[in-house]
Write a structure and sequence with these properties.
Blueprint lengths: L2 H30 L9 H33 L7 H18 L8 H29 L1
Helix pairs in contact: 1-2, 1-4, 2-3, 2-4, 3-4
Length: 137
């Protein structure tokens, strides 16, 4: 196994753990938080209803990307839609953090998961390039 494939596997494993953490923390925050809509302004009300689905969608995309990354690290032909899932994960992660009001203090797990998606995308491209070079020889 090459260094790029090894790094892709490690990043994908870390990404999986972070994605599960994002989903669990989002659910815990929703269950334990103040849910009374009457006491909030319109923007806060929108955040109350959209942040949980946004974080769950982000976590699901990240879990899908991490699973395809783990499989693709073993067999690069199985990478499939890994890069697409990582790019969508980056976009939805940023959207989820903006919806949740991350400007004041960014949640650590989602921010780290976005970085893991970015690193996964970079190493996906490296592994694909590595396979192309082998096929050309």
């Amino acid at each position: 196994m090459s260094t790029n494939r090894r790094v892709l596997k490690i990043v994908s494993l870390i990404q999986f753990v972070l994605a599960v953490g994002v989903i669990v923390l989002a659910i815990l925050a929703k269950v334990g938080g103040d849910q009374s809509v009457e006491s909030h302004e319109w923007g806060e009300t929108v955040r109350l209803y959209l942040d949980l689905p946004a974080f769950i969608l982000f976590g699901a995309l990240s879990i899908g990307a991490s699973i395809t990354g783990i499989h693709g690290a073993n067999r690069p032909s199985r990478l499939g839609s890994h890069m697409l899932l990582c790019i969508l994960g980056i976009l939805f992660g940023i959207v989820a953090m903006v919806i949740s009001g991350a400007g004041a203090g960014a949640p650590v797990a989602p921010a780290l998961d976005v970085v893991a998606c970015l690193v996964g995308t970079i190493f996906d491209a490296r592994v694909r390039k590595e396979v192309e070079r082998r096929l050309d020889k």
